[in-house]
From TrEMBL:
Residues of the Major facilitator superfamily (MFS) profile domain: 15-411
PANTHER family (alphabetical): INTEGRAL MEMBRANE EFFLUX PROTEIN-RELATED, MAJOR FACILITATOR SUPERFAMILY ASSOCIATED DOMAIN-CONTAINING PROTEIN
Record-linked InterPro entries: MFS_dom (IPR020846), MFS_trans_sf (IPR036259), TM_effector (IPR010290)
Protein's cellular compartments: Cell membrane
Gene3D superfamilies in the cross-refs: MFS general substrate transporter like domains
GO CC aspect terms: plasma membrane
SUPFAM superfamilies (UniProt xref): MFS general substrate transporter
Transmembrane stretches, start-end: 51-70, 82-101, 107-127, 148-171, 177-196, 236-259, 271-290, 297-316, 322-345, 357-380, 386-407
Entry keyword Cytoplasm: no
Membrane topology: Multi-pass membrane protein
Alphabetical UniProt keywords: Cell membrane, Membrane, Transmembrane, Transmembrane helix, Transport
Protein name listed in UniProt: Drug antiporter protein
Length: 432
């Protein structure tokens, strides 16, 4: 196994900055492609069902292959995984406008390329969290700040990416927007390759047979098993899955609320969604500022109630600014809950299983999401938007209570691993 020395503090700061910059650029490009791909299909075929099929194919790999992502990260390391994916996505995304310009882009070929892009994206975000954890170190507060920055990058991209894409599609065309995303992937890969050093943890050598994982840490479901064995996280995951499900119901209900209560005014629907997104950006900044002052568990518990209590305001016939303000407060709680949660995960598991645990959490949440959209649509259609919001607020409050009860029994543990004891290493390596 490699015994590369630990990076110097200055190198670590530059490496973390590279992870942030790469994550921000990649996230903006991905959000732009989310709009540009179906738009390209609509321009070329005029078929809304085909555009929907493209979107479905892009997100299906996470639901089908999500648990396998942790296996990839564990085998090849977070840094290597991200660099390879970035360069592969540069080729895959860039091939779409190139083939279209040559008149060779059939719809089945487009679906195949989109599926490849979706598969490449499966381990990417868990690898990003794992790499930030390796660079930030074991301090929970430092990890919370690092995760806060990543949350901010994603939320800014979610708000700005589609808006930028809309302007560029109108002026340059959807295919040029895809080229922009391809370039951001290449730049992301270069940043990570150049500024993030190879270390023993991020670039593990293939272990000898007697050093390989125990069966408990092997297999694509190892992360799920680790979560189920942890009494604290098993209860927390009930809340995490509930929020992943209920958040999708809320996102579906907001435009329908605007339609039903404000005479079909689409501008109100846009304001409600934008208020939530703007709040998430502000919450990431607040999370970073308080990350060194408050414990992750305290922030996690407070953020759970901050997320759900404003949803009760949606039940009342109040002016639009009040609704927007309530949703902004709720949106700010997202990074305030995600950042400490990922920090807790990172400090609770050893490096040989951490990536699989993070990937398992993301996959389970993503599986719950589509079910939320489906159940929300059925509930609103049968009971109306106000009744659905009432049930939503009640269930989310119960989920928050469950989380706080779990946090009261939080037991900090040192990351443990059932692996055999390693052979003694030279002093320079052991000092890592």
């Amino acid at each position: 196994m490699s015994t590369a020395p630990s990076p110097a503090p200055g190198t670590t700061r530059r490496a973390l900055a590279a992870v942030y910059a790469a994550g921000a650029g990649s996230a903006v490009g991905t959000q732009m492609t989310t709009l540009a791909l179906p738009w390209l299909v609509l321009e070329s075929t005029g078929s809304a069902p085909r555009a929907g099929l493209v979107f479905a194919v892009s997100v299906l790999p996470m639901a089908v292959l999500g648990f396998a992502g942790g296996e990839v990260i564990q085998r090849y390391g977070a840094r290597r995984t991200m660099v390879v994916i970035d360069f592969a996505q540069f080729v895959a995304i860039g091939s779409i406008p190139a083939l279209a310009a040559l008149g060779l882009l059939s719809f089945p070929l487009l679906l195949t390329i989109v599926a490849v892009i979706g598969v490449l994206g499966v381990p990417y975000f868990a690898a990003q969290r794992d790499l930030a954890t390796e660079l930030a170190g074991p301090d929970p507060k430092a990890l919370m700040r690092a995760n806060s920055v990543l949350e901010g990058c994603f939320n800014i991209a979610a708000l700005a990416g589609p808006a930028i894409a809309g302007v560029l599609i109108a002026t340059l065309g959807a295919d040029k927007v895809l080229l922009f995303d391809a370039v951001t992937s290449a730049v992301s890969g270069l940043l990570l390759w150049w500024f993030v050093p190879r270390t023993r943890r991020t670039e593990p050598a293939m272990p000898a047979p007697q050093e390989r994982q125990t069966p408990d840490h092997s297999g694509i479901l190892a992360g799920v098993r680790a979560l189920l064995r942890d009494d604290f996280l098993r209860r927390v995951m009930v809340t995490t899955i509930s929020f992943g499900f209920l958040m999708r119901v809320l996102m579906l209900a907001l435009p329908l609320l605007a339609f039903a209560r404000f005479a079909g005014d689409a501008r109100v629907g846009g304001l409600l969604l934008s208020g939530f997104g703007a709040g998430a950006i502000a919450g990431a900044a607040v999370s970073y500022l308080i990350g060194s002052r408050l414990s992750p568990t305290m922030v996690f518990g407070l953020a759970a109630f901050q997320l759900v209590l404003p949803w009760w305001v949606l039940l009342f016939d109040v002016p639009v600014p009040v609704l927007v303000a309530a949703l902004a407060v709720s949106g700010a709680a997202l990074p305030l809950s995600n950042a400490p949660f990922f920090s807790i995960l990172a400090t609770r598991f050893a490096a040989d299983i951490r990536a699989k645990v993070i990937q398992a959490v993301m996959t389970i949440s993503n599986i719950a999401g589509p079910l939320g959209f489906l159940a929300g649509g059925m509930a609103i259609g049968r009971f109306g938007v106000t009744t659905t919001l009432l049930v939503l607020a009640a269930l989310s409050t119960l989920a928050a209570v469950n989380l706080v009860v779990a946090l009261r029994h939080f037991d900090p543990v040192a990351p443990t691993s059932p692996q055999p004891e390693p052979e003694p290493e030279p002093a320079a390596a052991a000092a890592r």
